[in-house]
Amino acid sequence: MPKSILDLIGHTPLVESRTLNTNPNVKLLFKLEGHNPGGSVKDRAALNMIKSGLDRGDFDRNSKLIEATSGNTGIALAMIAGSFGLNIELVMPENSTKERIQTMRAYGATVTLTSVDVGIEGARDYAEEKVKNEGFISFNQFANDDNWKAHYESTGPEIWRDTEGEVTHFVSAMGTTGTIMGVSTFLKEKNGKVQIVGVQPTDGASIPGIRKWPEAYLPKIFDARKVDNTLEVTQDEAMDMARRLAKEEGIFSGMSSGGATAAALRLVDTLESGVVVSIICDRGDRYLSSDLFQ
């Protein structure tokens, strides 16, 4: 039976590190979210936010939708909104890679670029103003329970199933925190001893997809009790590891995946045994115009 493109979201591969992991007593597994049709882990949250919102009647084809994004969520929303006949405006900083901007427009979204000086926080402020003053409706992924529930319902169960319940540690970059919140909730229900490790940038580091939010912008879906440990990575660490993933593991991904992998390897070196799962959240082809692979 032919599937729609939306049926291909989820069920992504879990593969073992062949070279980067040098601890023979620990398995390091990569969850390859770039295999989603929109190219990132954000396909899961975008689909759940759109389908659940439509089911509740929060919006319809006549609604004016808007969302601030650093990139991957915007691509996912553009792809899925288009398939439902929805109109959406996506707001992102003007220094976003041209691949991301062009991909969103290819899917039919309106893309608004905000000043690099105000960053993603400024994009969020712009979207909120249009919600308040111009009748737009925002998914507000930072406060939308449909974001983390997508991972509670799909990503977490897939990891549990594919490791046959043997996962001991889960490592994820933290942006909107939807992935880590949903996976943590599910895995902790299955085994309260599973350790959840969040990855943040060091002060001053700029790593797309990983944020250390100012208190005023901290995602409302974030619950610090669901994260057992937080590791910080530098921008150079994230970039170097993204390059090593491509060259040594054949895994082509973005900088945030490099950051998560750097943290995961640091964790693996401290363990006597275990099964560590780390999220590879997207594909590297949307960073080719940046200096990541130069």
Automatic annotation (TrEMBL):
Name of this chain's protein: Cysteine synthase
InterPro entries named among the record's database cross-references: Cys_synth, Cys_Synth/Cystath_Beta-Synth, CysM, P-phosphate_BS, TrpB-like_PALP, TrpB-like_PALP_sf
Root EC class: transferase
Coiled-coil segments: none
Designated gene of the protein: cysM
Catalytic reaction(s) noted: O-acetyl-L-serine + hydrogen sulfide = L-cysteine + acetate
EC assignment: 2.5.1.47
Keywords: Amino-acid biosynthesis, Cysteine biosynthesis, Pyridoxal phosphate, Transferase
Molecular function via GO: cysteine synthase activity
Cofactor(s) it depends on: pyridoxal 5'-phosphate
Source organism of this protein record: Pricia mediterranea
Protein family according to the UniProt entry: Belongs to the cysteine synthase/cystathionine beta-synthase family.
CDD domains (UniProt xref): CBS_like
Pathway in which the depicted protein is active: Amino-acid biosynthesis; L-cysteine biosynthesis; L-cysteine from L-serine: step 2/2
A Pfam family the protein falls into: PALP
PROSITE patterns linked: CYS_SYNTHASE
All copies of domain Tryptophan synthase beta chain-like PALP, residue ranges: 6-282
